[in-house]
Amino acid sequence: MKKKIKNPFQTSHHLTLQDRRLLEKIRAETEEHNINNVMRTKAYLDFYLRYPELEWAFLGHMVSRNGGWNMTDLKGEFLTKLLSKKERNSFFQFLERGNWLIFQDIYPQFLLYEESLKRNQPLFYLLTYLNVSTFMETIWNYFWKYRDTYILCIALVINEQSYLEKRVIQHPFYQKEVLNKLEFLLQDLFSFNNILFPYDEGKLAGQTMHHFESLHERILLGKRLYSILFHNKDFLRQVVDWAKKHPHTGSRKDFWPQIFNDVKEGFPGSIYPIRLKSCRLRKGAKRFYSPSLKNAWKNVIQPDAEKGDWFENHRVADYLAADTIVMDGEIKNEYCKTLERLEIAALAKKPVNFLE
Predict the structure, then answer these.
(1) What is the pLDDT of residues 38-72, one digit of tens each?
(2) CA dist 73 → 65, 261, 302 (Å)
(3) How far apart are CA 66 and CA 290, in angstroms?
(4) Phi, psi angle pair for 207, to nearest 5°
(5) Is the dihedral of CA 223, 98, 63, 241 positive or negative?
(6) pTM of the prediction?
(7) Which of 44, 174, 257, 283 has its CA 20 to 30 A from that of 100?
(8) d(CA 52, CA 47)
């Protein structure tokens, strides 16, 4: 990695016709799946089921589900009452751009790995031609030799969060329209900080995110989420089984159909009393509206990703050290409180300060 930093553009490979055709195929296949959150999320799961050694593919699948739920929340029961149309559109652009950028960076890496397996030789020298960080070229070659699934997954967490840093988190538009808005500081209001891993029927695990603007905190969150998903093989099996049985639609009905529905119940303009108590609907209460992604947002054509390699300091590899703390992933109670406060805020039609 130190050598790469000193000579970031150094390459000794001459692209063959076969290489060029492979690059074209990878770009085309990536674009084909990078249409919306639902298609990306499915592509991650499909890849993991083919190659379970690519643990990030499943971690990415589950986090991408959460991204889709956050997108549809903006057209759901609560946030339509609390945010202006302009604010909701800005938040969607923020979420969609990040989701799109990560996919167009990481999916080509998976496809190149797949082709390497088919040819029984590493082809990771082609990553630079796909605008993937030189950091990942080093990691993929290491993985090819040592098969260290943990190192690969955490390296991909580091890579994707670092990749987003300047392109989304520090981007002037998102800084002004999203990250500097008071509402974003109250992250509980949007459930942005609750990353949920449904399993079994109605059970939830996950983690809570604070200080979203901190690259350091986002990487540590990724490591905690990895620990929850992959430390216990029986738990992993339950989450994978749930994911296979419940195709991602973007609606929170996917994991709690007893509380959410993807069609509006009741009459337009109806005023309801408080419906939720301890994550259960009161007797006779209507379910909360949580639309599917296809009914909430149209597909967006994104501008090309900004060029440039984020990798400038080899010390970022310190994050690759394994953590000894095992996370239990308890989050249901916290998420239930978030929903209850959100319902009250929507009824009052004003934000609730969760920081008090």
Answers:
(1) 999 999 999 999 999 999 999 999 999 999 999 99
(2) 12, 12, 21
(3) 13
(4) -145, 160
(5) negative
(6) 0.93
(7) 257
(8) 8
Region 141-158: what's the mean pLDDT? 98
Tokens linked to 150: 């943990």
Cα distances from 301 to residues 10, 132, 292, in angstroms, run 33, 21, 19
With beta carbons less than 8 A apart as the criterion, state whether 81 and 260 touch: no
Give CA–CA dist 290/144, Å, rounded: 42
Name the residue among 274, 296, 280, 283 with its Cα closest to residue 346. Answer: 274
Are 349 and 173 in contact by the 8 Å Cβ rule? The answer is: no
Tell me, what's the pLDDT at 356? Answer: 34
Backbone angles phi, psi at 198, to 5 degrees: -70, 150
Residue 220 in contact with residue 195, Cβ under 8 Å?
no
